[in-house]
Amino acid sequence: MILEAINNRRSIRKFKPTPITKEQTRLLLEAAMLSPSACNTRPWRFIAITNREMLDKIAESHAHARMLAAAPLAIVVVALPATQEGNMNGLPFGFYPQDCGAATQNIMLQAEAMGLGTCWCGVYPKGEKMAALAQLLEIPKGELAFCVIAVGEKDEEPAQRGKYEEDKVEWVE
């Protein structure tokens, strides 16, 4: 049941050194690409990183992604705003942050279903973080580093932080 994966998902910052296979990574990326997007524009691409040197460089350049020094995989979600330019042919404009967020969440839920841990490290809309990652990964102009997702076998079990709060719901019946 999907609610079980949602309930069990945590931000993991400690990972075991167990490698993540290409097959596992492909399943995570398949989940991402099955995400909804405005008018099915799919304004994303993904960079899967297992290279230890690059993982360490990203960890050094992003203060909130230090866990990449131990994680065996990072997935960088890259936004493609040009896929949603204008209102030509009825296409929407500017929904890529929501669309890339949905793809990110799908990766994290698929990882949980596979028994893996993740941590969503925000990049967009922080200009200095976006520029640093774009430089490290040679992301072309016009594409935006949206976020980095650390992935690996969990080496911690943090307590649940989220909960249902009825007082944050307004019912219109």
Report on this model:
By secondary structure, this protein is α+β, with helices and mostly antiparallel strands. The protein has one domain: NADH Oxidase. It is 34% helix and 16% strand. The protein has five helices and four strands, in the order H-H-E-H-E-H-E-H-E. The chain has helices at residues 2-8, 22-33, 52-61, 96-113, 127-137, and strands at 44-49, 73-79, 117-122, 144-152. A four-stranded antiparallel β-sheet has the order 1-2-4-3, with helices on both faces. Helix 1 (2-8) crosses helix 4, helix 2 packs across helix 4 (96-113) and helix 3 (52-61) runs antiparallel to helix 5 (127-137). The radius of gyration is 17 Å and the shape is globular. The chain starts with a helix and ends in a 21-residue tail after the last strand. The mean pLDDT is 95.
